[in-house]
Give the backbone structure.
Amino acid sequence: MEETAALFYKELDALYDAGDLSQVEAFLLDAKKQAQGGGQNLVMAQSELGAFYRGVGRFVEAIRAFLQAGEAIASVFGEESAEYATNLNNLAGAYRMAGRHVEALPLFERAMRIYEKTIGAQTFHYASALNNVALLHRELGAYQKAAAHTEESLAILEHCEDCEEQYATGLSNLAALYGLTGDAIKAKQTLALALSRFERLNYDNVHYAAALCGLAAEQYNAGEYGRAKATYEKAGAMLLSILGENTDYAAICEGMAQACAKLGEWEAAVCREKQALAIYEKLLGPEHERAALCRARLAAWKERA
């Protein structure tokens, strides 16, 4: 089983590194088909399929995959296992990203209770669930509560081995929360620390891209529009190479568009805003509020382009 898993993840990592997401999906769907008999192979295939769909913004498919993974995990490990808790955490994350917060929170809380009973609270997995709850509270506007959960998560991660990326990600999230609570000094200091941690890792990842977006927003708010544009472009290129045109990439396009508008580069602003709109319409639907905001900006900018 260990050799099979090692080969599975080696092939999957190679496909992600090649950057062809259609091949990643095809590989995972084939792995799922080959493992229809159940067992740990099906658990791996379904779990990674859920993570793939969540990463590229296909949340309905991600939720379906994680629900199916949960059934496979329950049959192999049971519903009170750490493995089942991890799937609950992943499923709740997909619900959160889809905007279905009411369904997400009890799943996060259940995952944390199972972790406490099985592997303990001073672990990476428990900290991960804490961080996800913090993200949910942030999206609901409860910034102080979100900051407290993030700080608790970081206190655990600081003592976990091989969690440098997760620690840097938590710092980035905390920096954004400090900004939302009005503590600009702590926000700037924490973001700088997060970026230095990411640079130390010396590889690209989606969380590093998110931290760069935080820096770009900081530069934009300071009136440094040229620097903000360049930082958004760096973050966008990084994210695009990993996950393609998902909703996070669309948000980066919006940031680039607004920086271009401030610089008077109206054609570039319209181009980036159209790119964001096309992604939102494809992934979230033409009536989604983010698509509507893009259309409103385009209507105001087209006359200047």
